[in-house]
Amino acid sequence: MNSRRPRLAFVSPVFLFPNDAGGKIRSTNILRGLKGGSFEIVLLSPATPEQQARWRDELNGVCDEFVAWQPTPQRPQWARAMQLLSELPVNVVADRTVAGLAAVRALAGRQDIDLIVFDFVHSAVLQPAGPGVPAVCFTHNVEAEIFARHAQQAPNRVRRWLWSSQHRKMQRFEGQALRRFERVIAVSERDAQAFRSHYGVTKAEAIPTGVDLDFFAWQAPPPVNAEQPPTVVFTGSMDWRANIDGVQFFLNQVWPLVLAARPEARFVVVGRNPPASLQAAAREVSNVEFTGFVDDVRPFAHAAHAFVIPLLVGGGTRIKAFEAMAMGCPVVSTSIGMEGLDAEPGTHFLQRDEPAAMARALLELLASDEQRQSLSRAARALVEARFGHRQVAQVFEDICRRALAPAQPHGRA
């Protein structure tokens, strides 16, 4: 009698390490929580031999078997521009590589694979056609919504047209792709409801956003004094358009108001690849630092007095918010920055959308040790009670077990 655990294959369109983006962090936390549970885990992603050697220990911590395909070299600028002419959205075209298609086809053909999870909807472009292994899609955003918001925020007619075109393509692709899966896992009930109502995806279910509470340990916010001047921090990949636009908005419209009242205040932007144009904009104001890539964001959050999320565009949920809350750094955010996260404005974070209101909230935090402590403790209590990554992985595992239930549970004949 075959008593082995069913084997779950997790297809990631990107190599998960280093964990320098929200999607990578969320997927890694899910895999870490799944390992050793109901499924044996096979992780499939692009990776060079050097990446596999460098991150061997981390890979062993998230999967029982790692399978790689050779990454496709980055296309030149003119070739990426040509992708705009495709019927598929640009990020979907980029993921549809010969090596990726072959690797997923080979994996789906293995007799020991019981369930395949595709990470992000655009990785569905790698899904083999026709019946086969039951498949689940793990969505981190409503992707079409992100394109629509970019179109709304675009500064000129050409960019509005480009983003609107991409929105229409993604809306078509996203709906068609999601309807093919046994289950769709969303990162918030808001997103799951959008998939049901917009695309007719009846089997869309939500998981909470999770955070590693051991890694992101709580510390009380530091005092404001001569040795620790008032400091505001932002963390996020600075080669992602939504983060670039959000920080640009903050530098142009919020930070000058903060400096007018607290000229000694500092703004620290932590994240890889900040564009030269953004760094040039920062030089027009005072006391702004770009760190570039860092191995560990925790020292920057623990040294700050406020964590700002000034996003104007986005989708899914912002895992950076719960990381900051877990670490004890008080959060000031736009409504989009905390969208889909079940946290209460005024209790767990401060929500401000207008530049002047955001500046006032930051100044109040910088002036009040009591308010910083109150927000910090309430936020940590919330994530401890409901959003630890182990609890979230259990919800994810339960959904995968239900997706597998109609199929052969221990390998295919």
Architecture overview:
With 413 residues, the protein is of the alpha/beta class. It contains 16 helices and 13 strands. A seven-stranded parallel beta sheet has the order 3-2-1-4-5-6-7, with helices on both faces. Strands 10-9-8-11-12-13 form a six-stranded parallel beta sheet, sandwiched between helices. Helix 10 packs across helix 14.
Short description:
The protein is an alpha/beta fold and 413 residues long. It is 44% helix and 14% strand.
Distance N to C terminus: 14 Å
Main sheet characteristics: 7 strands, parallel
Tally of contiguous helical segments: 16
Q: What is the CATH C-level name of the largest domain? A: Alpha Beta
- The second-level CATH architecture of the largest domain is 3-Layer(aba) Sandwich
Q: What is this structure's SSE topology?
A:
Layout: E1 7-11, H1 22-34, E2 40-46, H2 49-54, H3 56-60, E3 65-69, H4 77-82, H5 90-95, H6 98-108, E4 115-119, E5 135-138, H7 143-153, H8 157-178, E6 183-186, H9 189-199, E7 204-206, E8 231-235, H10 241-261, E9 266-270, H11 276-282, E10 288-292, H12 298-303, E11 306-309, H13 319-327, E12 331-333, E13 350-351, H14 355-367, H15 369-386, H16 389-404
Parallel strand pairs: 1-2, 1-4, 2-3, 4-5, 5-6, 6-7, 8-9, 8-11, 9-10, 11-12, 12-13
Helix pairs in contact: 1-16, 7-8, 10-14, 13-15
